């Protein structure tokens, strides 16, 4: 077996092992998918999310029958799903479902949960978040622990959606969620409404890097299927994954999608696009992937060494960016404090 093929096989096994470990700990219980037709009330996703802490914890959406055909949100913000075989089942608000698979065990869990839902609801409404409003979302007895609660809430949002909570105006103590990559509409890509797509792109970039800096179309969809993302099914967050990946992200030059020479029948592969190279780095996507799977990025050696070497070369070439808006809750997976900032083109 040629050396390159062996190396590629080893890289693929490494990625698969990391995903299997994450899956076994139920970190990949993403929202269930439905058929390719979009929800009949997609615009209702943007209605204000309820902020009451008395919302009833209901069955996970992943337990719904796979024959689900439509998913809508009521004016109160509740999920309604209708299938061919069952009557309507009501679920709690969308962020409740999206965040549920990251379980918190400490005594501040309820406060963190309330705050992250509130912050994300402001993102959906495209409105800033003020400290005084965030303090109103948590119990007065926990106000002294506000910084800790905010750090945990922002970190969970970062992991799930690749959005960073940045302090927009220090004088007014206002914050906003900002996409890690400069995707259109602050991560939403095709519309000014809907959920951010940045996390999917970050996962794909990490997978390509760990797979030898290229991934066949078959390898990519096998990877995404573990997350509940399939080419022919509508996804509540990523909507139409095939179009998003093979057209939108390719047209935006975050991904390169090309035919593999001398393959019959023809096969295609994905590589990093020039926009991804300009806006992020191997170290950043590896650390993001490591945060999600809760695996130390150094476990991906020699990829981690390669990423560090590239980061050093960027810094020496003058690629280190200047000071920017303060980012909340950013800490490297291996315990080092980091500031998420966009490196200059190399």
Q: Helix and strand layout, with pairings?
A:
Blueprint: H1 3-24, E1 33-35, E2 68-73, E3 79-83, E4 89-91, H2 94-99, H3 109-124, E5 129-130, H4 131-136, H5 146-161, E6 163-169, E7 174-179, H6 198-210, E8 215-216, H7 217-225, E9 233-235, H8 241-251, E10 255-259, E11 268-272, H9 274-279, H10 282-293, H11 303-316, E12 327-328
Antiparallel strand pairs: 1-9, 2-3, 3-4, 5-7, 6-7, 6-12, 8-11, 10-11
Helix pairs in contact: 3-5, 6-10, 10-11
Radius of gyration: 20 Å
Structural class: alpha+beta
Q: Per the principal axes of the C-alpha atoms, what is the gross shape? A: globular
Question: What's the SSE pattern?
Answer: HEEEEHHEHHEEHEHEHEEHHHE
Number of helices: 11
Largest beta sheet: what is the strand line-up?
5-7-6-12
Q: Percent helix among the residues?
A: 25-40%
Q: Main sheet, how many strands, which sense, barrel?
A: 4 strands, antiparallel
Q: Would you identify the regions where 5 or more consecutive residues have pLDDT less than 50?
A: 1-5, 25-94, 332-346
Strand content: 5-15%
What is the arithmetic mean of pLDDT?
A: 73
Cα(first) to Cα(last) distance is 35 Å
Count all strands and give the number: 12
């Amino acid at each position: 077996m040629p050396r390159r093929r062996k190396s590629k096989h080893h890289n693929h096994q490494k990625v698969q092992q990391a995903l299997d470990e994450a899956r076994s700990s139920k970190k990949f219980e993403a929202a269930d998918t439905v058929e390719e037709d979009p929800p009949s009330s997609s615009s209702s996703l943007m209605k204000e999310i309820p902020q009451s802490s008395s919302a009833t914890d209901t069955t996970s959406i992943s337990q719904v029958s796979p024959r689900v055909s439509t998913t809508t949100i009521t004016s109160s913000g509740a999920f309604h799903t209708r299938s061919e075989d069952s009557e309507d089942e009501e679920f709690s608000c969308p962020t409740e479902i999206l965040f549920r698979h990251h379980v918190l065990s400490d005594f501040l869990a309820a406060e963190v949960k309330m705050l992250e839902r509130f912050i994300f609801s402001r993102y959906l409404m495209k409105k800033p978040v003020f400290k005084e409003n965030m303090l109103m979302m948590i119990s007065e007895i926990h106000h002294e622990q506000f910084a800790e609660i905010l750090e945990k809430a922002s970190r969970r949002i970062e992991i799930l959606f690749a959005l960073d909570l940045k302090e927009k105006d220090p004088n007014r103590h206002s914050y906003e969620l900002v996409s890690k990559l400069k995707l259109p509409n602050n991560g939403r890509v095709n519309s000014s409404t809907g959920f951010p797509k940045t996390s999917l792109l970050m996962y794909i970039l990490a997978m390509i890097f760990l797979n030898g800096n290229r991934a066949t179309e078959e390898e990519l969809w096998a990877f995404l299927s573990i997350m509940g993302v399939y080419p022919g099914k509508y996804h509540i967050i990523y909507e139409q994954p095939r179009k998003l990946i093979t057209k939108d992200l390719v047209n935006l030059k975050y991904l390169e999608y090309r035919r593999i020479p001398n393959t019959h029948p023809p096969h295609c592969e994905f590589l990093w696009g020039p926009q991804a190279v300009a806006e992020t780095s191997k170290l950043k996507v590896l650390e993001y992937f490591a945060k999600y799977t809760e695996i130390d990025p150094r476990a991906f050696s020699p990829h981690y060494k390669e990423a560090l070497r590239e980061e050093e070369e960027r810094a020496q070439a003058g690629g280190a960016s200047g000071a920017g808006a303060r980012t909340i809750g950013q800490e490297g997976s291996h315990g080092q404090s980091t500031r998420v900032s966009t490196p200059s083109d190399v």
